[in-house]
Amino acid sequence: MIRRKAFLIVQALFCALTAGLLAAGALSLYFDGAAKQAAGDLFYPMFTREKAGAWLLSILPVFLCSLGLTAAGLLLGIRDENADKPPRDEKLLRAFSRVREKAVRQRADGKILILRTAVLVISLMLIAAGILNGGLEDVLSKGIAICTECVGLG
């Protein structure tokens, strides 16, 4: 039991590390390209196959370890037995019931009704402003053009 949990924790850590390294690589490539473009080289490519390939090659060992751990877990049938069960933490259940009671009280006070009404009035005002601004004709003409293209008439 303890070995299974340790295996799952290590597997999760490797997956998180892989995701973090991929995100860091994407940000690194972007900021490098943005700095070059800000320096005046407007035609400097931010993302190229070579740059992305070099970055992916540097994190390949971590990715392969993560992939290997996942495959080993699948082959050995190691999984969390409690993954399909809902949490039975009593503190969590009490906190959830308090939140639910508070929400019921808020509905009874009418604050949500006032907020919904305000959002409805604002949205209707913005729709009316769009119609008066001429947006209705734009949407209609674009819709007609898209429909006739899809059917094949245009």
Description:
This protein has two domains: 2-76; 102-151. The longest helix has 37 residues, at 2-38. The protein is an all-alpha fold and 154 residues long. Helices cover 80% and strands 0% of the residues.
Overall geometric form: flat
Rounded mean pLDDT score: 81
Helix and strand element order: HHHHHH
Helix percentage range: over 70%
Q: How many structural domains?
A: 2
Rg, nearest Å: 27 Å
State the separation between the terminal residues, measured CA to CA: 66 Å
Number of strands: 0
From the structure above, extract its key features.
154 residues, mainly alpha, flat
Write the layout of secondary structure elements.
Elements: H1 2-38, H2 49-58, H3 60-76, H4 90-109, H5 111-132, H6 135-151
Summarize, please:
By secondary structure, this protein is mainly α.
